[in-house]
Fold:
Amino acid sequence: MTRRISAAVCASLLIGFLAWPPGAEAEEEPLRTPGMAGGWPELSEPAARERSQGVHEKLMLVSWGDLIIFYGPETDAALYNRGQIERMMSSWKRSGFTQVYWRAENLPMPDWKWNQSSIYAEASLIKSEADKIHAAEDTTLSARELAGKMGLKFFFWHSIYDEGTPPDKKHRFWTGFPWRHTYFDDHPGLENVDRKGEVQWGVPEMAYPAVRKRKIHQYLDFVAKYHPDGVLVYLHSHSSPGLDGDQYGFNKIIADEFKKRHGVDILTDPRFDYADPRFDRKDAMVEKWRDLRGEYLTQFLRELGAELRKVDPRVRIAVNTQGGDYFGPPFGNMKIHWRTWIQEGLIDVLIVRTWMAGGCGAYDFRKENYLTWGDGAIGVTPYEEIRNEIERSGNKVQLISRSRNYIPGADGYYDAANRDVASVKSQRQEQLAANLKRHGKIAWIDQDFQSGPLEKTGCLDYRTGSRRYYIGDPRYYASRNRSPGFAGPLTLDPAQSPALVDVSGKGGAGMAACLREKGLGLEITRRTGSSWPDDPISKGKAVVGFDLMRQPGSECGMSLLHDRRGGPGLPAATEQNLQLKIDGKGVLSVWNGKQWSTTGRTVAEGAWTTVCLDVDLESETYGLRIQGQSGASGKIQADKLVFDGLAFACTKGEIHVDNVQTHWSW
Structure:
């Protein structure tokens, strides 16, 4: 999901919502801060002041696949098992939440495939972890049972416009897309297209009955298995948005129906070409085209409701929108017939001002002509107007906002389980303090490269353009007081370094990393920062150690690293890191954050040598040890030094690296 997604997300893959006050004007400066999930103010503001008479419903969104990676495996918010789920649900209950929306994970979808030729390591890790968890326990069933036990309504959350992108197709914001529903490759022509026939991959056209039928069956399978109180028709996608809000929507089935109704061919009539300078967004025919497109989403809701009632008449339907009359990014200016949904009783819950562009990070869509964009407060309908529509209909429909404040007209708000990072960090600090007291240090990184066959245990990664792997895990295991770190990008071919090789015949033990000149750098990293339980090392003392064997004349280096970077060589030597450099004669130099200095010590050729760098951030000093003997010491620029990983590079010849460790105490 490069997401970043998140980080994208995956990519991550964080999902959330934003509510702006009615009538708020878009600011001139960018609305989002890079690194914040969508830039929603709610993520950084303190808990809202609620008026009990107004906030009747509080909905908790659980993006389970994201949480197991971001918060896993050993904080409660990771939701790895029944015990963690029970503790988190109890916490939500105490905080006044009344409903839980759980993202579909155990839904049988045999056509869902990982794009191996474009996958990245974090997505591989998510797949591996999810498979292990589901092999041990049906977490969805545990969540359903516990929600019922605690009196929380349980909704199943599933996207209807998020079918993925083929590995050989481009995405505006991702260098490689990780998944695809191959049904759409086996049945081409069912996804949205523009006037030139270009496909908006992953966004199906609901005008096709086969598309609606397929998606309805997915909901029915889940409802029959888990018996939820309701389902969320989640209007959200990681697909690439068009270049303009009126680019897509020209499938033959739409063109034929429009011509039948209005006698106009949208495929040839220049009035529908957004790229034409004469294009008029207020043209009546253009608006009729947008309206026609929206009819088929409404038809889907009618058909879904009818089929669900056959399984369980009590199942409720929730839908999210960006809060206006049009779909918004990444979908386009298709009409959203939310008034019809309310009037016909097609929905029971309407969630507004939501974020839909999961594959776009903090992108600013204001210049791409979307008539509704909730994240930018463009084209949104006041809450009071929506409430009045509900009252006129005589139907019971909950109106839910994303604001964590009471808003007149709304019944409550919608929050996200991945928003409460503070409690996760608090639990991690307790774990670290307990382990520091018990063990005297934290094994921040402990990587010996003994991972087993890469094809079975490594996390596949294609970001470098070829098949590579990461081994280990970027997260901390409190029960073991260690993290192996995430090491890569590795191959099994010594000619394509860094490679995982057997050094048993070279004086080593088992496997180690082999680096050669002109190859990529080796990075061993942790995941830290605002979205993770851990923060980078910025205080106390750290001991960085590794075993090194260099061939005659080889030159290499090591750097403290903050955030994985990829590519050849080491990061630039700056005031934010410390580095070691070994020249062709084995002479070792140190970068202290300000300048390079030669230590006068050498690292032998053709033999394993243990190198240790002692970093004291409190006294702002470093010490160097080679084979246990003191080598050099000096002052460092500690005020800006922050790190969570290590990087190694070979600039000449060949080196081997093994037993990489970072121990931390404070």
Q: What stands out?
A: The chain has a mean pLDDT of 89. The longest strand covers residues 654-665.
